[in-house]
Every structure is written in structure tokens, then in C-alpha cells.
Inverse folding.
């Protein structure tokens, strides 16, 4: 199978997964991909980090999360997009008139790779490895995957853009977490303590705080369709 055939398959998959005839789902997907809807989750995450770490460790972790975001964004937007120069679906002459572009989201930068997928999976991977809780890990994967899928639904990215962005995010999140552990070991020999209480995760985060984080995540999941319903029904 040659490269042009893979491109054709990618476009076919996009058209199969892109958009719908529902204003309700258009609203859900548009809202899901915005930053402001996830601000409560970010604030709760900051609270959990502050509560379960010293102030010095908190600022170190906050800096690492910022570095994860900036690194994934730079690799995706600063390197890959100008290097590959792939047109967005809405600007591709072959499909620009048949792709469903929701809310006229016609970005003028390049398509490959998806910065949303890279950023989401980078942060999710780092936090998963940091807090070491199975329920949280599953939920963060779901959150990142949904965030990535919205880009296909909205018509701004191809599936291949999402897969490549996901790979960038997972690898970057993993490597920067390993860097975090290495620096912590250099500064603090007992970073890996044995937490035997069921009240804590393996990395020492209170399970009750993890549940608070999960409640905020799923409450936001539930809030998105409610806001979309109210917006498009009244």
C-alpha cells in the first residue's frame, strides 16, 4: 500500500467520523474542546497538588506540567505542522466542500499533527504516572481521547493527525515524568516511600483527593450536554 492510499484512507475515515445532523452534538463537541469548561478541573488539580505536596514540590510539579504542555505544543505546532505542511480538511481541495465544519471552525494553520491531542495526552500521561490511581488513569485517558476525537468531529483534524499527536503526548509525558523522578531522586532520596494505608495511592496521594478530582471531571462531563441542550433548545 503506497502513501497516497494511506492518505485516501485517512480522508475517508475523517468523513465517516466527522460531524452530524444534530445541533445538540455540535454544541457538546464545541464546548468540550474549549479551555474554560475545564477550568474547575484545573483548579481542583492544583488544590490536590498543593494539599499532597510541600510548597516547594508543588511549584516544581506546576513547572513540570507547564513544561509538558509547552513541549508537546512546540513539537506539534512549532515543528511538525510547518515541516509537513498538511492542509486542514476545510482547505483541502478534494474534500473542502463535503467536510462538515462545525461553527465555521476553519483554522488557517496546518493540520499535522493535532496540538489538542498532543497537549491532552501529554498532561494526562504525566498526571497518571504521578498519582498512580487506576480509576483516575482510566478517566484521564477517556478525557484525552474525547478531547482528541472532538477535533475530528469538528472537521479541523484528520485521524492521522490525532494518532500522531497522541504519540507525541504520551512519549513526552512519559519522558518528562522520568525527568521529574530523576530530579526528585537527586534532591530527596526517599521519594519512593511505601504507602501501606488504603487511604493513599502508591505515590502518596490521598485517595479522597483523587475522588474529588474524579467527581469534578465527571461533573464536567455531565454539565457539557446540559449546557448544550439549554443553548440549542431555548
Amino acid at each position: 500500500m503506497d502513501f497516497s492510499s494511506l492518505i485516501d484512507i485517512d480522508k475517508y475515515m475523517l468523513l465517516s467520523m466527522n460531524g452530524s445532523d444534530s445541533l445538540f452534538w455540535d454544541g457538546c463537541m464545541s464546548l468540550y474542546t474549549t479551555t474554560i469548561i475545564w477550568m474547575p478541573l484545573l483548579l481542583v488539580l492544583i488544590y490536590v497538588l498543593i494539599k499532597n505536596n510541600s510548597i516547594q514540590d508543588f511549584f516544581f510539579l506546576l513547572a513540570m506540567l507547564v513544561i509538558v504542555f509547552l513541549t508537546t505544543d512546540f513539537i506539534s505546532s512549532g515543528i511538525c505542522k510547518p515541516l509537513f505542511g498538511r492542509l486542514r480538511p476545510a482547505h483541502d481541495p478534494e474534500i473542502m466542500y463535503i467536510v462538515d465544519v462545525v461553527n465555521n471552525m476553519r483554522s488557517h494553520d496546518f493540520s499535522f499533527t493535532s496540538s489538542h491531542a498532543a497537549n491532552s495526552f501529554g498532561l494526562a500521561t504525566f498526571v497518571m504516572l504521578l498519582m498512580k490511581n487506576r480509576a483516575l488513569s482510566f478517566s484521564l485517558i477517556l478525557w484525552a481521547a474525547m478531547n482528541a476525537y472532538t477535533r475530528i468531529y469538528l472537521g479541523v483534524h484528520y485521524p492521522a493527525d490525532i494518532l500522531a499527536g497522541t504519540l507525541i503526548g504520551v512519549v513526552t509525558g512519559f519522558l518528562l515524568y522520568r525527568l521529574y523522578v530523576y530530579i526528585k531522586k537527586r534532591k530527596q532520596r526517599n521519594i519512593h516511600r511505601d504507602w501501606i494505608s488504603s487511604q493513599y495511592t502508591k505515590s502518596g496521594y490521598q485517595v479522597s483527593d483523587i475522588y474529588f478530582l474524579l467527581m469534578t471531571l465527571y461533573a464536567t462531563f455531565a454539565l457539557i450536554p446540559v449546557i448544550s441542550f439549554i443553548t440549542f433548545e431555548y
Summary: The longest helix spans residues 55-84. Helices lie at 3-17, 23-32, 39-51, 55-84, 115-131, 134-153, 159-187, 207-233.
